[in-house]
């Protein structure tokens, strides 16, 4: 077997793997879209390609009979607050660990690393009791605080590593010009760290939208439900048979994620360019 034949076989295998992976990824998505366009509410009567396309389920989600808009608003409030708060808190913590020397710094980093080894499930009972003690159980504020606290260890490590790659000579040059630590952080570090901060913002925006476990424990009243909890009740309630409405609601969740991704993609590219030029 010559080199040319080996190359063709390798390319064929690569395309085969891509094809299989694409089927695994897109088949459930196509089924969900098709189900949302089927008439009726039954799962078993739905088909991949609807015989009669209908948008009745999407219309119902935005009608007065549904709380979908309220759940959507709650999810966006939590996601935006967590994304913005995560960027602010994480960047400040990472800057302190990257640029300052203080007692206990090494141990604190080890603690951050250790905390990532334990699953969130282990803290559920403690979080429930803590929120109940401070009177923030069944509130969006309490849910936001839990998300903000839980993201610090991983994101601080991630952003701190990126800050370490930014030359300290830039800090020193700014200090010679009279800039203080806050000025250096705002005018030098943050512009060069746009790519990693965009990643932090995107991940922390997506997490509350798709998370079900934590909101289902913290939130109990229907007016405070997020999308994941609210949609789950479409098919979890006794005698509930709203699978097609559940599919329609699931499809609409992707809209803000796609929007924020396209928005941050521009900043990712511009941030990488600026970092390469200024560095």
Topology:
Layout: H1 3-36, H2 56-61, H3 68-99, H4 105-115, H5 124-133, H6 140-164, H7 168-176, H8 181-192, H9 194-210, H10 213-218, H11 227-236, H12 243-278
Domain ABC transmembrane type-1: 72-264
Organism: Gracilibacillus orientalis
GO molecular function, one term: ABC-type maltose transporter activity
Describe the fold and architecture:
There is one protein chain. The chain is an all-alpha fold. It folds into two domains: 3-59; 66-276, MetI-like (MetI-like fold), CATH 1.10.3720. It is 75% helix and 0% strand. It is built from twelve helices and no strands. The longest helix is centred in the C-terminal third of the chain and has 36 residues, at 243-278. It is globular, with a radius of gyration of 24 Å. Residues 271-279 have low confidence and may be disordered.
For the record, the count of structural domains works out to 2
Radius of gyration: 24 Å
Measured as a percent range, the helix fraction is over 70%
Euclidean distance between termini CA atoms: 49 Å
Mean pLDDT: 84
Specify the oligomeric state. single chain
CATH architecture annotation of the largest domain: Orthogonal Bundle
Number of helices: 12
What is the 3D form?
Answer: globular
Global structural class: mainly alpha
Looking at CATH, the homologous superfamily of the largest domain is: MetI-like
Top-tier CATH class of the largest domain = Mainly Alpha
Largest sheet: none
How many beta-strand runs? 0
CATH topology label of the largest domain: MetI-like fold
């Amino acid at each position: 077997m010559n080199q040319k034949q080996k190359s063709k076989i390798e390319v064929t295998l690569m395309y085969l793997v891509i094809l299989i992976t694409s089927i695994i990824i897109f088949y459930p998505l196509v089924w969900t879209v098709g189900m949302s366009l089927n008439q009726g509410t039954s799962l078993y009567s739905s088909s991949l390609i609807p015989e009669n396309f209908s948008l009745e389920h999407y219309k119902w989600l935005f009608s007065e009979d549904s709380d979908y808009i309220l759940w959507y608003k709650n999810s966006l409030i939590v996601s935006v607050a967590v994304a913005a708060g995560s960027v602010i808190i994480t960047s400040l913590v990472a800057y302190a660990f990257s640029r300052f020397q203080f007692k206990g710094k090494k141990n604190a980093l080890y603690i951050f690393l250790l905390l990532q080894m334990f699953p969130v499930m282990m803290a559920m009972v403690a979080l429930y009791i803590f929120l109940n003690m401070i009177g923030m159980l069944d509130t969006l504020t309490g849910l936001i605080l839990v998300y903000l606290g839980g993201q610090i260890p991983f994101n601080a490590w991630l952003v701190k590593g990126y800050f370490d790659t930014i030359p300290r000579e830039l800090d020193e040059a700014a200090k010679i010009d009279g800039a203080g630590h806050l000025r250096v952080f705002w005018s030098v570090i943050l512009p060069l760290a746009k790519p990693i901060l965009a990643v932090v913002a995107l991940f922390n925006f997506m997490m509350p939208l798709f998370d079900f476990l934590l909101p289902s424990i913290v939130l109990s009243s229907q007016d405070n439900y997020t999308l994941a909890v609210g949609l789950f009740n479409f098919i979890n309630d006794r005698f509930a048979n709203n699978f097609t409405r559940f599919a329609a609601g699931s499809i609409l969740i992707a809209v803000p994620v796609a929007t924020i991704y396209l928005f941050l993609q521009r900043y990712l590219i511009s941030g990488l360019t600026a970092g390469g030029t200024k560095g």
